[in-house]
Design a protein that fits this description.
The chain has 297 residues and is mostly helical. The chain has ten helices and no strands. 32% of the residues are buried.
């Protein structure tokens, strides 16, 4: 087992923060790619900052989570517009579901939507600069941090994240509804990123779990993207699609959701084989053994 130190958390925070700066400045990449990569990195950062929550009075990141959440939210429309365009093209181009002329018409509109979103964010509002300013502030706080994250903070956060996800799945009225799957996915992605951070504490266990979490959140993410596309077409393209054509779209997305649920049913039950108390004991054992005494506070 590799020794685990809270220095790894600091290292990961700095690595992802500099990654955000890179994608803000990367001129050889499309803005859509940068938006996607920035959102992924910021979500990882947010999940790791939760490890510092129990440092009462000494948490330098206490006021960072909300601005970071707002940063992700500001990028959401741009990301969704690109995904809508990509998915519509995937499902309906070169197929017989909808007339070719209709497909081109909607594709053109979706493309203009995406271009407008990107233009508004990064030309009119110069949002990349705003992101860099926020992340540079976070980098400074991270570099200046001289404290220690106790093992108990890591254990409590990991255990609580798992318990919340477990409750979403077993205590929800319909855990496989699109709404519940989306909520569960948010919590599971948080758990995935947190397990990534502590992986050296017990490489075999956390590597296996991060692989599981990656797989199920990808399926759930695709399902959520399909639902967003369907809602968008219903709300903004009612005059572009006949009732019959809208029914075709509805049925296709419904079928995709059924396929996702059929795959997720077994995978989520396997993921949640252990109850929260068993996982808490396991995590406590791994983290306590994996952190050298000098880093446990």
């Amino acid at each position: 087992m590799s020794p685990f130190s809270e220095d790894r958390i600091i290292h990961l925070l700095l690595k992802q923060s500099h990654k955000v700066i890179y994608f803000c400045d990367a001129e050889n990449l499309s803005s859509n790619t940068s938006v996607h990569e920035i959102r992924k990195s910021v979500k990882r950062i947010k999940s790791w900052l939760r490890f510092f929550r129990e440092l009462s009075g000494t948490n330098p990141f206490e006021e960072e989570e909300q601005p970071l959440q707002e940063l992700v939210r500001e990028l959401t429309d741009a990301r969704e517009s690109f995904v809508n365009l990509t998915l519509f093209d995937k499902y309906f181009s070169n197929r017989k579901f909808l007339p070719e002329k209709k497909v081109k018409q909607i594709n053109d509109k979706l493309n203009k939507e995406n271009q407008s979103q990107i233009h508004n964010l990064f030309t009119e509002e110069n949002y990349f600069s705003l992101i860099k300013n926020r992340i540079r502030s976070l980098i400074k706080k991270t570099e200046d941090f001289k404290g220690v994250v106790p093992a108990s903070s890591l254990q409590n956060e990991l255990s609580e994240t798992y318990a919340q996800a477990w409750a979403f799945f077993f205590e929800g009225e319909d855990p496989f509804s699109p709404e519940q799957l989306h909520k569960l996915r948010i919590k599971l992605k948080q758990l995935w990123f947190q397990y990534e951070a502590v992986k050296p504490a017990q490489a075999r266990y956390f590597t296996a779990k991060t692989r599981q979490l990656h797989e199920v959140t990808e399926i759930m993410g695709n399902d959520h993207d399909n639902i967003i596309l369907l809602q968008h077409l219903r709300e903004h393209y009612r005059t572009d699609l006949s009732r019959e054509e809208q029914s075709i779209v509805d049925n296709l997305i419904a079928h995709q959701h059924e396929l996702a649920v059929s795959v997720l049913t077994g995978k989520l039950k396997l993921l949640f084989t252990e109850n929260p108390e068993t996982v808490r004991k396991r995590i406590t054992s791994y983290i306590t053994q994996g952190i050298p005494a000098k880093t446990t506070g």
